[in-house]
Amino acid sequence: MLDGLLEAVARAERDLDALVIWHEPPFAVGANLKQVAEACAAKQFDRLERTVAKFQQTSMRIKHAAVPVVAAVEGMALGGGCEFVMHASHRVFAQESYVGLVEVGVGLIPAGGGCKEFALQAHRMAQRAAGGDPFPFIIQTAFQTIAQAEVAKSALAAIQMGFGQQGDDIVMHPRELLYVAIRRARALAEAGYQAPLPERQIVVAGRNGIATCQMLLVNMLEGGFISEYDFRVGTALARALCGGEVETGMSVSTEWLLDVERHEFVELLKEEKTQQRIVHMLETGKPLRN
């Protein structure tokens, strides 16, 4: 699938005006956990890291393609599917769309650029607010949403939760979805669409942000709402959202955020309890609280 998307972007840039990513519902429900479990059992962590790196590369190609890339979403867009949606130039949602980053349910964090995108959103919000501190926006929009695996229950909720953007289209009749997406893609192309440049100066919450997230996790741990391993996963998420163990207020690049995200993801994959959660999800369809 990653190869197909990379080829689609390349062909669109070479021969076409725009690209629409569409699938009959569900749009996409994330990585193949069976393959992940098999690779973990075989200790193929280098291979897994290369796959995650390719996933990130695909997300970035979608975001920075020379032509507009429109995601046409109906039904579930979870995990990696959600991350592709977040990286598109524009989104056309069917009203009945269920969008979210649900990786914590199997002891992981988003690693296809999802954490990076929320860190970037926090940076932009902070730049528009007095003081320029990204941390309050990370707490309000990202950490709690991802840590609790919240899924938007409608297209409007998806936009409000940060999985889409103001200005995205919402289509009430799902049969019109693909038509509207194609028209939107053509309109963007005809308007002279130019891809955004990769961000080089993203202000992050750093160590203070991580510590504050951990305080929230401690309260939940002491109250019996999460397990000790949930605390471990939450800390990895905090590192990815806050730019890693760097000084608060430091500016980092997109590549730095992707590296932190990928590192934390692979380290969690090596944990026995994450592997147990993946297997349990495959066997029962329900999350394991170990």
User: In total, how many domains does the architecture comprise?
Assistant: 1
Task: Give me the secondary-structure category.
Answer: alpha/beta
- Assign a percent range to the helix content: 40-55%
CATH superfamily: 2-enoyl-CoA Hydratase, Chain A, domain 1
Which shape, going by the Cα principal axes? globular
Mean pLDDT: 95
Written as H for each helix and E for each strand, in order along the chain, the element string is: HEHHEHEHHEHEHEHHEHH
Q: Roughly how many Å is the radius of gyration?
A: 18 Å
Largest sheet: 5 strands, mixed
**Could you list the spans in which at least 5 consecutive residues all have pLDDT below 50?**
none
Count up the helices.
12
By CATH, the topology is 2-enoyl-CoA Hydratase, Chain A, domain 1
Overall CATH class: Alpha Beta
Total E-strand runs? 7
Approximately how much beta-strand content do the residues carry? Answer: 5-15%
In words, what does this structure look like?
It is a single chain. The protein is an alpha/beta fold and 290 residues long. The protein has one domain (2-284): 2-enoyl-CoA Hydratase, Chain A, domain 1 (Alpha-Beta Complex). It contains twelve helices and seven strands. It has helices at residues 2-15, 33-41, 45-63, 80-87, 114-128, 135-147, 155-160, 177-190, 206-222, 228-242, 254-269, 272-284; strands spanning 19-22, 69-78, 90-100, 151-152, 169-171, 202-203, 251-252. Strands 1, 2, 3, 4 and 5 form a five-stranded mixed sheet that branches. The protein is globular, with a radius of gyration of 18 Å. It starts with a helix and ends in a 6-residue tail after the last helix.
